[in-house]
Amino acid sequence: MNSNGSSLTVQANGRGHKSASVKVAEKPQLSADDQRRLEIARGVIAGEIEIERAGAMIGKSQRQMRRIVERVKREGDAGVVHKLRGRASNRRLPTEIKNAVLRVYTKSCKNLGLSAAKNRIWREARIRINRETLRRWLVAAGLRLKREEMRRPAATGLVFFGASYLSK
């Protein structure tokens, strides 16, 4: 392991020649919250901050702060980054279900609102889906406009008559 955290491996290939491969550990992308957590964890490791105070500074319990400090000692900067960052949620529905829902929607639900489309999808494909999930999938597939795109522009040319007109 080099001083910068990378490692160098040398392997011999089948013909007796050596080939080198360099494996460089990537620095994690840290959010502002992660950077603050890392600073505080380093302060605890250096003995500058007590663990109770450090936990209070970032809204974590003493126990959770101890875990964060241990992870920073073990993993370095990556110890403050959530382990599921960049990965799909464990609650994500399978792609097959999403594709089936989009097929049913394009076949028979295009002119329906979200709640009616959701009910039709249940009747036709026996797939129960949340209305908001359906909306997000449709926006991503380009089958529905985003909320802000759906808002109608204000009508132009309206004449306001004022209160004196109404009192006559």
Strand content: 5-15%
Number of helices: 8
- Widest beta sheet: strand line-up: 1-2
C-alpha geometry: elongated
How far do the termini sit from each other? 89 Å
Unreliable sequence segments: 1-13, 17-25
What is the SS-derived class?
mainly alpha
Instruction: List the helices and strands in order.
Output: EEHHHHHHHH
Radius of gyration: 28 Å
Mean pLDDT: 81
Major β-sheet annotation: 2 strands, antiparallel
DSSP summary, beta strand count: 2
Helical content band: 40-55%
Question: Can you describe what's shown?
Answer:
This protein is mostly helical. Among the domains are: 32-80; 95-149. The chain has eight helices and two strands; from the N terminus they run E-E-H-H-H-H-H-H-H-H. The chain has a two-stranded antiparallel sheet. Strand 1 (7-12) and strand 2 (18-23) form a beta hairpin. Helix 1 packs across helix 3. It is elongated.
Please provide a brief summary of the model.
The chain has 168 residues and is mostly helical. 49% of the residues lie in helices and 7% in strands.
Name its key features.
168 residues, 7% strand, mainly alpha
